[in-house]
Design a protein that fits this description.
mainly beta; 5-stranded antiparallel beta sheet
Length: 192
């Protein structure tokens, strides 16, 4: 979740960049492919930095509509899939437990995830916690859905069939306020 909700992913180096007639072409390394219409984040250049929508892409370049004068850029900068803009609250003593807060929320709900289990993560939607310095206890969650009643009452998101590191295909799509997640039941690649 961190890669999609908070950090972004798939970073690659931009080797050259130029703008011609309002179209920015970023030549990239690593044969990374950015999907058409995806939102990417550019860092390292003040004029280009920020989130932009891809209008064309191959494994060697990305094109973005950008209303700036024709020019060539030099220096070192990077491009990656942009995050959905969420923030992550954690507690140092409990690094695998987090509260994800959307950039904009129409309901006021956050996502609580306890990822201390092997093949699944304990998940709740909630408005926050009564104990922000130790929110690892699900009983401290405010208005959690489904309602937490006991230690045996757990809602889980499956991560894998067994406790291993085999990649399981997943699908996640979202924005700054919500996302849809579908766990894949076969080994394979993730889709974001």
């Amino acid at each position: 979740l961190d890669a999609v909700l908070v950090n972004g992913f798939g970073q690659t180096t931009v080797t050259t960049a130029n703008v011609v007639d309002g179209i920015l072409t970023l030549n990239i390394t690593n044969s990374e492919t950015f999907q058409k219409y995806a939102v990417v984040n550019i860092t390292g250049d003040d004029q280009l930095k920020g989130d932009h929508r891809v209008i064309e892409s191959t494994n060697t370049y990305i094109k973005i509509a950008l209303n700036i004068p024709n020019q060539t850029f030099t220096g070192t900068f990077y491009v990656k899939y942009a995050s959905l803009g969420w923030t992550k609250m954690t507690i140092a003593a409990q690094p695998n437990i987090a509260m994800y807060v959307p950039k904009s929320s129409y309901s006021g709900f956050n996502l609580f995830v306890n990822d201390t289990y092997g093949s699944a993560a304990f998940v709740r939607i909630c408005r926050g916690t009564t104990n922000p310095t130790n929110f690892g206890d699900p009983a401290t969650l405010i208005d959690s859905v489904p309602i937490y009643t006991s230690a045996n009452d757990r809602s889980y998101w499956a991560k894998n069939y067994t406790n291993n590191t085999t990649t399981t295909a997943n699908f996640l799509i979202g924005d700054g306020s919500t996302f849809y997640y579908q766990w894949g039941q076969t080994n394979g690649t993730n889709n974001y």
